[in-house]
């Protein structure tokens, strides 16, 4: 399903309204810049419409950095949203990017998700994902071994492009989610959006196909500019 919004502000508002409407109890947030405005709108305009203390927060992926690092996905979400709403601290499950051993951080995060959901193969209620201009999502990049990962639910691939490790949810976990929502904004994404939604199957984002859940693409008009339908 595709939903197209006039601009980035309307996209962020639409995503915030979906968050409120879904009443998800387990939510995974993505990183990057796109979700920030949605987080801010949730905190500013929908604060009183969400049962914050009933939500378990996770992340789809994290950079291999401490939580106070400028590149930390947790830090962005904390500053834009979590510091401004009454979430229960014990329900905020950040990926420990500060762990010098990224593989250990991934393994521990997998244990956390299983322990919190009490499911050996967790089915999260809602995940927000972004799309890179190279077709990556979460931290699953083109050519990555993550594309063939079938065992682990969270892994720590080395990303050549950034010369660093990332910690990321893998396709078995992402594809077990009830609602997967891609948020994509801006003219610089128009080409990759066309490729991913209407081109041949060769990008990581195209491997996100919830087995028994819904897949929603929320785009602003600029990002959707080259779509034929
Ligand atoms: C990350 C994200 C990544 C992001 C895309 C889009 O850790 O960077 O999880 O997958 O969603 O790169 O990023 P922008 O929203 O900044 O374009």
Termini gap: 12 Å
Radius of gyration: 16 Å
Poorly predicted regions:
none
Element order: H for helix, E for strand? EHEHEEHHEEEEHEHE
| Total helical elements | 6
Residue fraction in strands = 15-25%
Could you explain how this protein is built, in words?
The structure is a single chain. The chain is of the alpha/beta class and 229 residues long. The chain has helices spanning 8-22, 35-45, 73-80, 102-117, 171-174, 190-198; strands at 2-5, 26-29, 56-59, 61-63, 126-129, 154-155, 158-159, 164-169, 179-184, 214-220. The strands form two sheets. It has a six-stranded parallel β-sheet with strand order 1-10-9-5-2-3, with helices on both faces. Strands 4, 6, 7 and 8 form a four-stranded antiparallel β-sheet that branches. Helix 1 crosses helix 2. The longest helix has 16 residues, at 102-117. The protein is globular and about 45 Å long. The termini are close together. The mean pLDDT is 97. The structure holds 6-phosphogluconic acid. 6-phosphogluconic acid binds at residues 30-34, 60-61, 73, 130-132, 136-139.
Could you write a compact summary of the structure shown?
By secondary structure, this protein is α/β, with parallel strands linked by helices.
Task: Set down the secondary structure blueprint.
Layout: E1 2-5, H1 8-22, E2 26-29, H2 35-45, E3 56-59, E4 61-63, H3 73-80, H4 102-117, E5 126-129, E6 154-155, E7 158-159, E8 164-169, H5 171-174, E9 179-184, H6 190-198, E10 214-220
Parallel strand pairs: 1-10, 2-3, 2-5, 5-9, 9-10
Antiparallel strand pairs: 4-8, 6-8, 7-8
Bound molecules: 6-phosphogluconic acid.
6-phosphogluconic acid binds next to loops.
């Amino acid at each position: 399903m595709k939903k197209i919004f006039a601009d980035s502000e309307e996209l962020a508002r639409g995503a915030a309204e979906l968050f409120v409407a879904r009443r998800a109890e387990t939510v995974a947030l993505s990183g990057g810049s796109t979700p920030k405005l949605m987080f801010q709108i949730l905190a500013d305009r929908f604060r009183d419409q969400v049962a914050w203390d009933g939500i378990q927060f996770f992340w789809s992926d994290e950079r291999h950095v401490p939580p106070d690092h400028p590149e930390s996905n947790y830090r962005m979400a904390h500053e834009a949203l979590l510091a401004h709403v009454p979430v229960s601290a014990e329900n905020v499950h950040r990926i420990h990017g500060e762990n010098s051993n990224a593989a250990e951080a991934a393994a521990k995060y997998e244990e956390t998700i299983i322990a919190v959901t009490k499911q050996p193969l967790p089915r999260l209620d809602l995940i927000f994902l972004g799309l890179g201009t190279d077709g990556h999502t979460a931290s699953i990049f083109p050519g990555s071994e993550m594309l063939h990962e079938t065992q682990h639910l969270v892994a720590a691939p080395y990303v050549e492009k950034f010369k660093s490790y990332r910690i990321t949810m893998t396709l078995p976990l992402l594809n077990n989610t009830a609602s997967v929502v891609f948020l994509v904004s801006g003219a610089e994404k128009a080409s990759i959006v066309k490729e991913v939604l209407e081109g041949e199957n060769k990008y990581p984002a195209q491997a996100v196909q919830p087995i028994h859940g819904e897949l929603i693409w929320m785009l602003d008009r600029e990002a959707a500019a080259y779509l034929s339908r």
